[in-house]
Amino acid sequence: MTQVNLALGAMRFGSETDERTSFAILDRFVDAGGTLIDTANCYAFWTNPERESGHSERVIGAWLAARPGVRDRVRIATKVGSLPIGDGPWPENREGLSAPAIASGVADSLERLGTDRIDLLWTHMEDRSVPLEETVHALADLVDAGTVGRLGASNHVLWRVERARRIADADHRTGYTALQLRHSYLRPRPGAPVAGHNHRLGWVTDETLDYVKSEPDLVLWAYTPLLSGAYTRDDRPLPEAYDHPGTTRRLDELGKAAAELGVTRNQVVLAWLTGGTPPVTPIVGVSSTAQLDEALTGATLVLLEEIRTRLDAAT
Ligand SMILES: NC(=O)c1ccc[n+]([C@@H]2O[C@H](COP(=O)([O-])OP(=O)(O)OC[C@H]3O[C@@H](n4cnc5c(N)ncnc54)[C@H](OP(=O)(O)O)[C@@H]3O)[C@@H](O)[C@H]2O)c1
To answer: Is residue 209 one of the residues assigned to a domain?
Structure first.
């Protein structure tokens, strides 16, 4: 079966999406050839007043346990670094990326997932209070131990990723080979904060795409690619960051492409991401198998060059 270039976002599993529905989505994903599952140790602390988390990893762990043999068919990606600690405000009070925080965060994730390895470990957000060398070596130690397969950086600025990669290279250690940032077909206004993150550095920019194109070992994953449903749903207004004239032109072209192809706007967006240069892996969050089916068809759709050129030209 062909592998699908789509990651299943498990952020809401076990919290907003109940276990039964989460299992059905996971089953459907694997049946359709999906392999990549994205979660984090801090999902979803913001859904409850006690700021408890681990719901998503626990549901994935329960699903792996209930489906013998499925562990070898999927690649689990989880994140460390953003877990709230203490009662103070987040993100100021979070576990961070010191060597002990990484080691204990990953140990807890393995326990919740009920597995002995994480295929891709993301550092969820930067921690500039810790020397980069310490983070790089703590991550590489996990790879050397066989606990982690691959390393990725999420919500990091490029110069920090590049610096971390240089440190790893110079010390003959395994470094980052994956980036995870917010990205979709619509472009945010320059300088607009990433919704819910209160910072301006989590977006894919032209520089990100150029960097990934130039570094053959790097892959790029895009979060919130469907803008939480805003391309197709009136109940999901576009975030304020997209309030500029280029959005009107892009939505126009997107609508035309979807009508010509007889598909949904969501599907055109996913096809645009997966078939671009560089190819991007969208991480889609779904709360039903119907939404998942729509995403799977979109991710495997191949856009005619002429349509892609028109979509790209709308700025
Ligand atoms: N690294 C990071 O900092 C970071 C940040 C955010 C997310 N992520 C990752 O990215 C994943 C996806 O993020 P996201 O959930 O923010 O973005 P998203 O995939 O753009 O939006 C997901 C939501 O869109 C709606 N939706 C999905 N498919 C739809 C369809 N076919 N038709 C209509 N509505 C549809 C659903 O809303 P309803 O459920 O309400 O129907 C769904 O919950 C997460 O699960 C997580 O793994 C990472």
So the answer is: no
Q: Tell me which residue range forms the domain holding 164.
A: 7-176
For the segment 189-229, what is each residue's pLDDT rounded down to a tens digit? 988 877 666 555 789 999 999 999 999 999 999 999 999 99
Pocket lined around ligand 1, Cβ cut-off 6 Å = 9-11, 38, 154-155, 180, 223-229, 232-233, 266, 283-287, 291, 294
pTM for the predicted model, two decimal places = 0.97
CATH of the domain at 129: 3.20.20.100
Testing ligand 1's pocket by substitution, the residue of 182, 186, 224, 233 carrying the most ligand atoms inside 8 A of its CB is 224
In a domain, residue 108? The reply is: yes
With respect to residue 264, please indicate whether it lies within any of the assigned structural domains: no
**211 an active-site residue?**
no
Asked whether the predicted pLDDT for residue 147 surpasses 70, the reply is yes
269 class by beta-carbon count within 10 Å (0-12 exposed, 13-18 middle, 19+ buried): buried
Per-residue pLDDT tens digits for 5-43: 999 999 999 999 999 999 999 999 999 999 999 999 999
